[in-house]
Design brief:
heterotrimer, A: 4 helices, C: mainly alpha
Chain lengths: 228, 354, 392
């Protein structure tokens, strides 16, 4: 994990990026067993490991990690919606003054994050190992027309609540879930709140008033921005 | 002073006059006054143990805390749940209160006239009357049309009936020693300890009946549904149990009944085990019919009641509560066998030394 | 003209009835259904537990959270990074400084900014003090759940000392909102270190008192030993964390084992406490010892506060570079983590909050089978949750 000592070369650092042998070995164990099902990965050296797999091996990957690699601790499971929000940021900052009638900035193209991704929705989960004290984040793509994936509850009992929450917030379906009832939202709620095209109703009702009074950052004297 | 004493001793009023005096002074005024004093004292003790502020701050020296407390409850809305059985719901608190005040009637506060009703079967009468409150609790639990109240009521039924037995058995030991059910006779027995032959000096029964004293105190704690036996009112589980739907004046009646019963039982404990209104004061120790006892007797009894109720409330504020099955286990596996064994020991001792 | 009920309202009414019926249908049809909550003295907030009872025994038990769901993950998508701290304070509101820390650390990791040593040090001290405030309340509240109400008053009274110190430095007892990306908002006031040492002594005395009054009490032990045993593998599979997992024998503490850079636990001499039993008593006992360890940590940290600036050089308007990061810390309630997805904007693109109480309470249906009603309360008390933490 430490970069090798180079005394003179100042443009060598590009090749001497620190490597994380432990995490690379873990990744290699997944690719050995699952081969092509591991479609993407990312390692931040010394920090974390991301692995993206195909939908059909989603529970198998977790099972393997739990039984063989010692990642027995289930941390959480949730979803990401990569669509840039069509409502902008509703903020009156120097960057984004939609309220004042200036041309709204065009929406950026949809781009996914670490370990890549091809679809709008991804499910991601995190497992920890309480003996090796590392963690791994798994991601999988969900095609837009079939937002479903198999459940993790046979391997990790705690996934039950997390899957219920992801299902009601994003509209996912976890097939095989023992008790697929809404967790947070009342029974009659319509819509999926954490999707980007579900508007934040409080901002629809009352737009952001702008930066009114802000304390100065420590070390500076003038406040930023003016009131309306 | 002696003329007043002889005058009081020679007083043989007509029946209705003495009844009026008894009911007014002994049955109502004195217990109420004592109750108020006792509650003020107890609130201060509670505040001291739990670092609460009210009883120290409300009014001068915290004396208005009781007024504030009563006033708070009286000004609350009087709610009756929709599905409740109205007659039973309304009657339940008063049944409990009634059984408590009947209890006070039989406790001697001095030699003969200073007792509202000198029942020949004193202690038996008291124990029977105190168990009438179980009916009130069950009524409250059922009529509230609330699952929590129902659970509380059923728990109360199990607990209160289970702990009647240790109480009765503990009292039996005392009765065997005293040779009589009458409470005045029990006090006299402690005044001159003649059960084991001509012993002479006074001896409160707690000395020879310590295990039964502990059993009786535990049973009293359970009959009052006070911690550690407060399953029926477990506040953090079933939110006041059978009292949950009561508010305002009706809850005040429950509250009052709880304190009144506590003092009533404390008075019984003092009478049975601590010597009642008698204290071997030099000069008066042998003359049990002296006029001075009309003055000193109630004060002595009051002091003993204060001590015993202090212990009751002290235990209440210290211990967490038992679970249902642990509570029943304690009663049936421990308290009843201990009391049976000790009654046998007492009976044998009485026969041997008689 | 009859009143016209809007179609959506009618559908909502029918759906609500159906939802309630579904909750009941999953269980067997005998016995009594008891709703513990949402208003109840034992649940720290509006948690509803639907218990099917057979007499006094619970045949099945299902927590229904969401009565306090505020939608933090959605709200934080329109907040700038410093503004998210305000929201996040209100998750675990009894030890609220601790909620800000993992989020700030995740943002600092993406920005590649390191807070100066003095800020890191004070951040750790405040983190530990929020742990003290939280668990002292827990110890007091234990008494309330079990019936020994005196402990509550002692807990609240002795917690005031810690809260006063937090207020002296941050300005807020409950919601300090003090952590900033790159450091802290302000420096320590004069005399704070000496006063805090006094407060630490008072907390240590409280621990001894509560141990005498409650933990060593025979009835408490009778109520909590052997009740609600959670084996270690079940705990791992459900994702329990904090003292709940350590009480089942798992030796894992994020402060020691995978400590996020930004907290200075490696400079302190302390130990991790575990208990093999996994019952309610073990959980309570582990937390009591953790308070004592926390006091030790605080005292060591208070002696060695380095001098220096309190804030690193960060731009006035904070834009976090593109990337994803996850930081978890050992909060008072358990392991709390923030998964920040950033697109180089002023506000997070997606913020996933991993709260400890969410996982801690999901184990209740497994644990509370076949126990008595009082035991359900004991189990809830020992698992220790704060409703804002479950219900984000």
């Amino acid at each position: 994990m430490s970069s090798p000592e180079t005394v003179t070369d100042s443009d060598a650092p590009a090749e001497e990026a620190p490597r994380d042998a432990g995490r690379e070995e873990t990744l290699a164990q997944f690719t050995d067993v699952f081969g092509d099902a591991v479609v993407g990965s990312h390692i931040r050296p010394g920090d974390d490991l991301w692995i993206r797999v195909t939908r059909d091996v989603w529970p198998d990957v977790h099972d393997f990690a739990s039984r063989r690699l010692g990642f027995t601790y289930f941390s959480f499971l949730s979803g990401i919606d990569w669509l840039p929000s069509p409502f902008g940021r509703d903020m009156d900052s120097q960057e984004d003054i939609v309220v004042h009638g200036i041309e709204p900035k065009p929406l950026p193209a949809m781009a996914t994050g670490y370990a890549g991704g091809d679809t709008r929705f991804q499910v991601f989960s995190r497992l920890n190992s309480t003996t090796a004290f590392t963690g791994v984040t798994f991601k999988t793509d969900l095609p837009d027309d079939d937002l479903s994936v198999r459940t993790l509850t046979p391997t990790f009992l705690g996934a039950s609540w997390h899957e219920r929450e992801a299902a009601e917030m994003f509209g996912f379906t976890f097939s095989g879930h023992p008790y697929p009832v809404k967790l947070y939202l009342p029974g009659a709620f319509e819509g999926y709140p954490l999707r980007k095209d579900f508007p934040l109703l409080s901002r629809r009702v009352k737009p952001w008033p702008g930066i009114v009074d802000v304390e100065p950052m420590p070390g500076s004297d003038e406040p930023e921005g003016e009131g309306e | 002073m002696s003329t007043v004493a002889t005058l009081l001793g020679e007083l043989t009023p007509a029946y209705w006059q003495s009844t009026l005096v008894r009911v007014l002074i002994i049955g109502i005024l004195v217990p109420t006054g004592a109750l108020i004093l006792a509650i003020v004292f107890l609130f201060k003790v509670m505040a001291w143990m739990q670092s609460r502020l009210g009883p120290y701050e409300a009014g001068p020296k915290g004396l208005l805390q009781l007024v504030a407390e009563v006033g708070k409850w009286l000004q609350k809305e009087d709610l009756i749940p929709q599905g409740a059985d109205k007659i039973v719901f309304k009657a339940a608190p008063f049944i409990i209160l009634a059984s408590t005040f009947v209890l006070y009637a039989a406790i001697p506060a001095g030699p003969d006239p200073a007792i509202a009703a000198n029942v020949p079967t004193g202690i038996y009468f008291i124990l029977a009357v105190s168990s009438v409150s179980v009916i009130g609790v069950l009524m409250a639990g059922w009529a509230s049309s609330n699952k929590y109240a129902l659970i509380g009521g059923i728990r109360a039924a199990g607990q209160l009936i289970a702990y009647e037995l240790p109480m009765v058995l503990a009292a039996v030991g005392v009765v065997v020693l005293a040779g009589s059910l009458n409470l005045q006779d029990i006090v006299h027995a402690q005044a001159g300890f003649f059960a084991f032959g001509d012993w002479g000096p006074a001896l409160p029964f707690i000395v020879v009946q310590l295990p039964l004293f502990i059993v009786f105190m535990s049973a009293v704690q359970a009959e009052l549904t006070q911690a550690p036996f407060d399953m029926p009112i477990a506040e953090s589980e079933i939110v006041s149990g059978y009292q949950v739907e009561y508010s305002g004046f009706r809850f005040l009646v429950f509250f009052l009944a709880e304190f009144a019963t506590a003092f009533g039982f404390a008075a019984i404990v003092s009478t049975l085990f601590l010597g009642g209104w008698y204290l071997p004061i030099p000069g008066l120790a042998d003359d049990l019919q002296s006029g001075w006892w009309y003055l000193l007797g109630p004060i002595i009894l009051f002091t003993k009641v204060m001590i015993v109720s202090f212990i009751i409330f002290w235990v209440r504020f210290t211990y967490p509560r038992f679970r249902e099955d642990q509570l029943q286990k304690l009663a049936w596996k421990w308290l009843i066998p201990i009391s049976l064994v000790w009654i046998t020991v007492t009976s044998v001792a009485v026969v041997v030394w008689q | 003209m009859t009143a016209i009920v809007p179609d959506s309202q009618q559908r909502a009414y029918v759906a609500a009835k159906a939802a309630d019926a579904r909750v009941n249908l999953e269980f067997e049809s005998e016995g009594m259904t008891l709703n513990i909550g949402p208003q109840h003295p034992a649940t720290h907030g509006t948690l509803r537990i639907v218990a099917k009872l057979d007499g006094e025994q619970v045949t099945s038990c299902e927590p229904v959270p969401g009565y306090m769901h505020r939608g933090y993950e959605k709200l934080s998508e329109v907040r700038t990074y410093p503004q998210v701290t305000t929201l996040v304070n209100r998750l675990d509101w009894v030890g609220s400084f601790a909620n800000e820390v993992p989020f700030i650390l995740a943002a600092e990791k993406l920005m590649d900014v390191e807070a100066p040593p003095r800020a890191q040090h004070i951040r750790t001290i405040l983190f530990e003090m929020s742990r003290l405030a939280n668990i002292v309340l827990f110890l007091g509240d234990l008494g309330a759940q079990m019936g020994g109400v005196t402990a509550v008053f002692y807990g609240f009274r002795d917690r005031e000392f810690v809260l006063n110190q937090i207020e002296a430095v941050t300005g807020g007892r409950f919601h300090p909102n003090f952590d900033r990306i790159g450091g802290l908002k302000d420096d320590l006031p004069k005399g704070w270190i000496a006063e805090t040492k006094v407060a630490m002594k008072k907390v240590a005395d409280f621990c001894d008192e509560i141990e005498d009054l409650l933990i060593a009490n025979e009835i408490f032990q009778l109520r909590s030993r052997g009740v609600g045993v959670i084996p270690a593998d079940i705990g791992l599979s459900y994702g329990l964390s904090g003292a709940n997992l350590r009480a089942s024998g798992v030796d894992w503490d994020t402060r020691r084992d995978n400590c996020a850079p930004g907290l200075v636990y490696d400079k302190v001499d302390w130990k991790v406490i575990t208990h093999p039993d996994g019952d309610c008593f073990a959980r309570c006992w582990v937390r009591l010892q953790e308070v004592r360890e926390s006091v030790r940590i605080c005292e060591q940290l208070l002696d060695t506060v380095p001098a220096g600036p309190i804030m690193a050089k960060v731009p006035r308007i904070i834009k976090v570079p593109e990337g994803e990061s996850y930081v978890e810390t050992e909060n008072p309630l358990g392991v709390m983590g923030y998964y920040v997805v950033s697109k180089g904007d002023l506000n997070p693109f997606r913020l996933k909050i991993r709260t400890p109480s969410f996982n801690n309470i999901s184990v209740v249906p497994w644990v509370a089978r076949g126990v008595y009603v009082p035991d359900v309360i004991t189990i809830l008390a020992s698992l220790y949750f704060i409703l804002g933490d479950i219900d984000k």
